[in-house]
Design brief:
six-stranded antiparallel beta sheet; five-stranded antiparallel beta sheet; elongated; binds zinc ion
């Protein structure tokens, strides 16, 4: 789903029109003026197509043009399949660069801090991903470990840009030592005020402190799973996705983990993965399999859970980004008193 309206693209076009008109009025060099006039007529033509109802339709095949590409460049007139080989090479080069940048924004794997171990697997469906995954280390010895997992609307480059925006926002806000629900509220307000209006993100923000205590707050994200010897408990979202209402409130859930227990987080590319008959993998399957292999080492556990999704999907193409993050309390940690 791309949560962007035609109104947003129209505003973008009208804004470009206004800027070009102003730039032309300032009488730049003749060669520049010619280029500005060409661009202005392309903007006008896009607005006319919008009025006529055929905006965003490929001029070669009449199929809809990819929406995330229109958001980046509202003037394009061809779908990905009908780019010239030169345009295609340029686009592939940009995508590879974007993918490299995105990989460099991921947290380290196999983290160990306080009584906690953390591991994650990040599998984009294409070169770049709209999934968000981060771990922020405490700035002082009293602070907890902040972890985040999310899924932004759309796919491809537009979604990956939104993912980097979220990462930067949470990293800046994390220095204020807010509770996880307040952190979500602040990030949501900034998101709603940003130019990325019309896009959404579901997200879980958590903090891992001392003595096995976790706090998590969820903005409309898939249920978190607490995996223990007794079974698997789902912790459901209590808040709306980020980007919907600037006044959204979030609540923090407190969870206590015994040594060896895990908190498993994932994106809907995993819970909604499908087999060749269109059946969905589902949260129950994640929970069932996670409970079965809960005694494995954290790295093995994470890899095995993801392999089971792959086994289920068989030879179908991965259609959505998949991310899984697991936070486990060390087996050697002191057990909590039974309450
Ligand atoms: Zn086409």
């Amino acid at each position: 789903m791309v949560g962007i309206t035609d109104r947003y693209i129209r505003e973008q076009l009208e804004m470009r029109r206004e800027r070009l008109t102003t730039a032309i009025a300032s009488a730049p060099a003749p060669a520049v003026t010619i280029r500005f006039h060409e661009l202005l007529s392309e903007v006008d033509s896009a607005l006319q197509r919008m009025d006529a109802g055929n905006y965003g339709i490929c001029e070669v095949c009449n199929d809809p043009i990819e929406r995330d590409r229109l958001i980046e460049d509202p003037l394009i007139r061809l779908c990905l399949d009908h780019l010239s080989s030169e345009e295609r090479r340029a686009l592939e080069g940009d995508l590879e660069l974007a993918a490299g940048i995105q990989r460099s924004l991921l947290p380290p794997t196999n983290l160990q801090l306080l009584d906690w171990q953390m591991e994650y697997e990040y599998k984009p469906a294409g070169l770049v991903s709209g999934d968000y995954c981060d771990v922020i280390l405490p700035s002082d010895s009293n602070g907890g470990l902040t972890f985040l997992i999310g899924d932004v609307s759309g796919k491809g480059v537009a979604a990956s840009l939104l993912m980097s925006y979220l990462r930067a926002t949470f990293r800046s806000l994390s220095t204020a030592s807010l509770d996880v629900n307040k952190l979500l509220e602040a990030a949501n307000r900034l998101f709603c005020e940003s130019t990325m209006a019309g896009q959404f993100a579901t997200l879980i923000c958590g903090s891992a402190g001392r003595d096995g205590e976790l706090q998590i707050a969820s903005a409309g994200h898939c249920p978190a799973l607490v995996v223990s010897t007794d079974g698997v408990k789902q912790v459901r979202a209590t808040g709306l996705p980020l980007g919907m209402f600037s006044t959204s409130h979030y609540t923090a859930e407190r969870i206590e983990l015994q040594p060896g227990d895990s908190l498993l987080l994932y994106t809907d590319g995993i819970s909604e993965a499908r087999d060749r008959n269109g059946n969905e993998y589902g949260i129950e399957s994640i929970a069932h399999f996670a409970h079965k292999c809960r005694s494995q080492s954290l790295q093995q556990f994470t890899a095995m859970c993801l392999n089971d999704v792959r086994r289920f999907s068989g030879d179908t193409t991965q259609s959505d980004d998949q991310t899984m993050m697991v936070i486990r309390r060390d087996k050697s940690a002191n057990a909590l008193p039974v309450s």
